[in-house]
Each structure stands twice: as structure tokens, then as C-alpha cells.
Amino acid sequence: MASEILQPFLGALQASLTVLLDIFYGVLAAQFGLLDDDSANAISRAAIKMFLPALMFTRIGSEVHLESATRYLPIIVWAIVYHVAAIAGTLAISRMFKLPAWTTPAISFNNAISMPLLLVRSLEVTGVLEPLTAKSESPSAAVDRAESYFLVFAMVANGIVFAVGGNLLGKNEKDQDDGENGPGDRHEDGEEPTEHTSLLPNSAVRAEERIGAKAHNKVNEYNDKLPPWAQKTLRYSSKFVNGPLLGAVLGFVVGLVPWLHRVFFNDTQQGGYLNAWLTSSLKNIGDLFVVLQVVVVGVQLATSLRKLKQGEESGPVPWVPMVFIIVARYLIWPAIGIAIIGAFAAKTNVFGDDKMLWFTMMVMPTGPPAMKLLALADTSGIDQTEIMSISKLLTIAHVAAPLSSIAVVGALKAVEMIGGSS
């Protein structure tokens, strides 16, 4: 019995250490001046706005079929239920014990993309996921399917983060894109080019601006005719719309339309005329996202530690909320996830017989708080002291990443017990 637990635990621990080392490489890059905070932020923006939508499209599109689409519905429901429960429960506890405002988003929003994707890839290497692989598929195919499950969960999580994350910090969010690609960034005739100068001919740039202005005015015209409640609903709903969501939606559309799925994802000999060049190129840039984001986490943590050492506003991390956050993120939520998903998998047929689906849904709530928490703090107008407190919290929480192995082992054993009894 001990060896049955020790073997997957060691495999999960190795996978968690791999994630920790990738973060450490980002710290080294910052330490030796290869990357700084500005370059890390630029990489992160490119990863989120370009690489992640490509990853969403290729992973989800390749895995979704008409016959398999229904297995993604429980993930969407689980993502909504988990985040609503996490926010409501943590808000109540935070107010009861007068914890800092950032405690709620730190517990409610975990690193739902890069960390679990890197973890599942490392688990594949250790062989821990072999019991979850169907007889008719390869381990790599099973991991691709697992990644698509995590990405659908992340799609919902991102929408909720962008919609309510700033409000949970108790401040008004500022627009993160203010000043980007605005009128002042356009290159007009006779002006010196800058990094914001469009590569298109000036005539094309002017045409683009005219079309954009007309479209903007038209939208405002229709919006002004709506009742106030409808305007408020649309404004709030627009927060959920982002590049990764569009990539995921396109992936679902292509996956569910047989001829589109064939053209994008089949072998060339089987009608996949776009696979060898367009889809492959999107896969290449999509695969960049996972490692780049984890390295950026390391750079951001190194930058925060450097500011701390230089004596910049250094906010304390109260030990009560810190322990509460780590215990909730690595123990409480995974335990709840394993119990709930395990009960549904054992007593109902809601999740079918896909063991990889059971496993991924069980571990989806685990992991350190999302690094978006730091970005939300930067754009929410909170004190620099609190931002440094959040930075130190994120550093400690990511160093504790090997604790994820507990949730991995618990989920593996739960799936084994359910699968053996079914």
C-alpha cells in the first residue's frame, strides 16, 4: 500500500519540481540581466494576446468533435460553480476575520493555465498518467486531451477574473490598455517612426482609422438608444470578451463542423489542406505560451524581490492570511474538488468513462494564486505597500508549488478507486 502511494507521489513531486525549476530559470534570467520587468511584461502581453489564443484554438479544436463536445459542458459548469463558491465563501471568511482584501482573489483565482499545463506535461514524462490513458490512445494523445480540458476551465476563469477581479480588491480598475495604440501612437506623415508605428502604408492606416471611427460611432449610436440597464449589462458583459475566449470559441466552431475539422486537423492525404502549414504554425506559437508564462512568473518574482531588497515600499505579509491562502489553494480546494467530482463520477454518468476528465476536474482548483493578481493590483490603484505584500505572497505561494503533488496523488487514487469499482 505504501509503495502504491509513494510511486505516484514521487512522480508528482518530480513534476512539481520541474515547474519550480522553470520559474527559477526566469529568476536567473532576471538576475543576469537577460530579462527585466519591462521585457517580461511585453512577453506576457504577447503570450496572452497572441500565443494563448493560438493554443486555445489548436488544442480545443483538435480535441472537440460532435460526439465528444458534451464532455466539455461539465467543465464549464464546474468552473462557474467553483469560482462562485470560492468568491462567496472567501468573502465571508475575510470579512469575519478582517483579512486583507487581496485574500479573496488570491484564494479564488489560481494559476489555471501555464502551471497545470506544464505540470501535466511533466507528469507524462514520469509515467504517472499512464493509468488514465485509454487503451486505444498514446500517452501524448491523452495529455493533449487533458490540456484541452484545462484550457476550457481557464477560459471561464479568465472571463471571471477580468470581470470581477478588480472589484474584489476594493478599488476601481483602470483600463490596462489606456495609452496603447491610441491616436498619439499613430505615425503620421513627417513624424519620426516609433515602436508603435504601423507597418502598413499611411493610406491604409488612415483608412483603418476612418473605418474604426465610423464603427465606434455606430456602436455608440445604437448603445445610446438602449435602456440604462441594457447598457450596463453590455458594458459588464464586454469584460468577458478577450483574445483567449475568441480562440477557444473558434476552436469549438472548427471542431464541431466536420468539414472544418477535417481541413484544419486531418493529415494532408485525408483532406487536411491547412494542417501542414496554417495549423502547424499556430501550434508552434501556441506551444510557446506555457513555458514563456512560467519563465515570466520567475522574472516578475525576481523583480519584486529586488524592489524589496532596495527598500521600496515593503508591505508585510500577515502570517494568518498567508497560511490560510496556501492551505486553501493546496489542500482545502483540491480536497473539495476530489470529493465532489469523485462523488459525481462514482454515482452518475455525467462525466462518462473518461478517467482523464475525472482527474483533470479534480485537480483544476489546485495550484498557487494567479499571477494576474499582481497585474490587477497594479491597475486597481491600491497602495504600493499592498502591492509589495501581494508580491511576497505570490513568491511564497509559488515556492510551495511541490505541495500540488498531494492533490495529484489524491486525485489519482480517487480515480483508481472509482474506476476499479465501476
From TrEMBL:
Its main location: membrane. This is Auxin efflux carrier. It is found in: Membrane. GO terms for cellular component: endoplasmic reticulum; membrane. The keyword Transmembrane applies. Residues 183-195 have a biased composition (Basic and acidic residues). The chain crosses the membrane at residues 72-93, 149-169, 245-265, 285-305, 317-344, 356-377, 389-412. Keywords: Membrane, Transmembrane, Transmembrane helix. It is a multi-pass membrane protein. It comes from the Eukaryota. Residues 172-202 are annotated as: Disordered. GO terms for biological process: transmembrane transport. The keyword Transmembrane applies.
